[in-house]
Amino acid sequence: MLRAISAQTMDHRGPDFAEVGRAALAGMKSIFKTDQHVFIYPSSGTGAWEAALVNVLSEGDKVLMYETGHFATLWKKMAAKLGVDAEFIEGDWRRGGPRPDRSAAACGYRTGDQGGLRCSQRNLDRLCVAHRAGASGDRRGRPSGTADG
């Protein structure tokens, strides 16, 4: 086991990683029982943020975001670059934002005619909250006695 975890990390731009990717795609075809193309969206967390923003929001949309730390501020900057109008509520970096269900209720979110969420009090299109990792020490919502609690 020590030998395996001490092995050099595979270069994600190299031919060995490309082969792993091809094998993964072939295996996914079997899992999904298809002969059609299967796509993997490889990215860092930043790529996931961008995918979330561009697939859910349009330029000019108004969103409410909570400052929960460095990643949340970077997400807001990315939203601004994409033309999203983000209202940013300052927070304490040592704690996560409010629970999304409470945030939505406080903002006045309700299900709209099209099934999406609308904020009647702030005229917002969406609510964006970057979660906090367990490594941050934020333990809200975790039952005591669990591995994380």
UniProtKB/TrEMBL annotation:
The organism's superkingdom is given as: Bacteria
Entry keyword set: Pyridoxal phosphate
Q: Does the keyword Kinase apply?
A: no
| Family annotation (SUPFAM superfamilies) | PLP-dependent transferases
Residue runs in coiled coils? none
Q: Which InterPro entries match?
A: PyrdxlP-dep_Trfase, PyrdxlP-dep_Trfase_major
Cofactor(s) needed by this chain: pyridoxal 5'-phosphate
Specify the protein name: Aminotransferase class V domain-containing protein
Keyword S-adenosyl-L-methionine, does the record have it?
A: no
